[in-house]
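Reply to dn_fold:

You asked what the input looked like. This is it:
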Amino acid sequence: MKFGDFEIHAFVEQKFKLDGGSMFGVIPKSMWQKLLPADENNLIEMQTNLFVLKAHGKNMIFDIGLGDTLSDRELKIYGTDGVSNLEGGLSSLGLTEEDIDYVILTHLHTDHSGGAVKLVDGNYVPRFPKAKYLIGKDEWEDAIHPNERTSAVYIPERLNALNDAGQIEFIDLNVELFPGIKAVHTGGHTAGHFGLQMESGGKKVWYYADIFCTSAHMRIPFVPATDLFPLQTMEVKRDSIDEIIGDNVIMAFDHDVDSPFATVQMDGRKMIVTPFDGASDVA
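and this is what came back:
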């Protein structure tokens, strides 16, 4: 999909499952299961949608999925077989791991950063040998010092491999990373979580990672129980929704199984989320 001078594409890195209740917090199952039906174990289908942006002559990828180095415990947590489509997804775009210039990590949970590394002779090494990994400073500190609640989703051994290789670039938030590409601190899901706002040719595409993880989560009170600061998540949603609707922003969803892109409108008090054909150029 082209918008202005930018081009963005999505592919599925891996399919997985999570507990439906954990993904909707205080929202009753009778409400959320109409949007994302659960199986007999209360698990809902999810996937890691990865986004490749071609801008300013560079190839950038936003978050990097679960990857192929998951432990047996992690395979159970995520309900996946651990087979990653990272290489195949990139190949479908005419790219290899060596063609990626920047890996932008909105936060460092395993389903967003696991694919950043691979195993070579039993050791973790950066998957993208020529890339800079852009990471928020506060998120990094939390991730390499996990606590009892976060130790299942922050794996320092993987992340330290990036630092040891000298490929991390720590970034400030609420700044332009590149012309037309802004990192916006959200908090909410984690203290250091950020989203990406892209604009070119007067058209906007936003990737807010786990703040708006699926189209069902566009609704303000639909907040995962895994969010560390749920009221902050709601505040970010509340503050951004008018611009999303008014400017016809194309939203990119990291975990939606039906469509990685969508637009949002209001019909009275009813929110309508319309899938956007990511193969089409933005007029």
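The mean pLDDT is 95.
Hope that clears it up.
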